[in-house]
Structures are given as C-alpha cells and as structure tokens.
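Hi Prof. W.,

I finally got the Probable endolytic peptidoglycan transglycosylase RlpA prediction working! I wasn't sure whether to trim anything, so I left the full sequence exactly as given:
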Amino acid sequence: MPRQELQQCVDIPYAAPQGTATLQVLLRGNVIGAVNSTNDTEQVAQSLQAMLVDEPINPHEIAPVLGSPQPAIRLSSDILLKILTQENRDDVSVDSALALSNEWAAIAWSDHLRQKMGAAPLDAGTIQLMFKGLKPSEQELNGIASWYGPYFHGRLTANGETFDQNTLTAAHKSLPFNTILQVRNLNNNRTVVVRINDRGPYIGKRSLDLSKAAAQCLGSDKVGVIPYEAVLLE
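And this is what came out:
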C-alpha cells in the first residue's frame, strides 16, 4: 500500500519532527553504525544478515515500536534499530519518509527493512493495533460488508455524531456504540480498524456497513460488497 494511502488508513496523528533524524543501528544493544535515509535500508539489511549469519533474522518479526517517545524498530521482543532526532544538525540528509512524526518514521523504516529482507510491509490494521495498544478479544463475527458515503455525509449517525465518510467508522445492527473492530476483507486479506457509531445495514444479508474511508482501506470501494471477518478489540 502506498505511504499516502496508508496514512489515510491509520489513525496516527501527524506531528512535524523537531530537527532531523537518523537511524542508529544496534546489535545486541551495541551501536554498530548509523544511516540517514531509508534509501540505505538495503545496506542495513545486508549488514545485519552478514553479522547474524548463525542467527538468521526472520523479517516477519520486524515491526515498529509505536506510542513511545523513542521511536524504534524491534525484532520480535528485542530492539533492533532506534531512530534518533538530532537537533541543530545541517549535515544530515533526510528523505521524505523521515519528514513525518516519530511514529511514521518508525513505520517507514520497518516497512523498508521488511521488504529488503523478503517480507511484506505491515498492513493498516496491524499498525493501528500496535499504536493504540489494542489486542484481539475472543469475540469474532463474519458476514457480508457493504459501505456508505456521499449521500449520508454530514447527516447524523444513530449515536448522534455527524457522519464523516472520511473517518474509519462502521454501522452494525446490534454492537454497542464505540465498539472497536479489526475488519478483514477475505477477498484480499487487507485489514482496517473501525469504530461502531451507527446502525445498519438493512439490506439483504449484509451485517456491516463501512464508511467510504474504511472501504477504501480494504479495497472494497469499487466492488461494493465483500465477505469479511472481524474481531472485537480491547
């Protein structure tokens, strides 16, 4: 998913970073180098693989550390890389990926590193769970999901809010308002996290009505109706 599209699907506020940033590379807690552009991620990946030849890195375990003053990238439960903000430095070249909030810098770096080492980037739903500190519950549901948008934009939802088709919300017939769901499009495996703030849908066997933004994140805005699975988050 392109970064601009990903930003629309992850509810992490933008905040301009202070100063400039570089990536500090650690190995078992020791600094082994630093780079200053995501264009150098291939160099980082090759160096780590060479140094850990006897302990191969599983790129699927690479993920950003979010919601922390010190953005970082972890490998399983160990901190692998740290992103440092450097005040008053004019000699550090920073690409557009780092002209973001600390969280987005960590996401950009981890996704680049995952891809260089052969894994897919994290999807929007997974990133949202990390940032918000949410975990799946044991309560799951599935069915057919549709989406609604322009005609209802600006009208009141069932819980009294003004419906905004560009936010990540959904309608359900019975789930309590403000229930948080991670929804998966079974046609393409994409996920997004939504909040229930409306009632519906009331057409056929449909059981979930997504906002336009949520449908776009799932890639269902063009087809209209999709099979889905969802899990309640807590």
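The chain has two domains: 23-122, 130-233. Does that look reasonable to you?

Thanks,
D.
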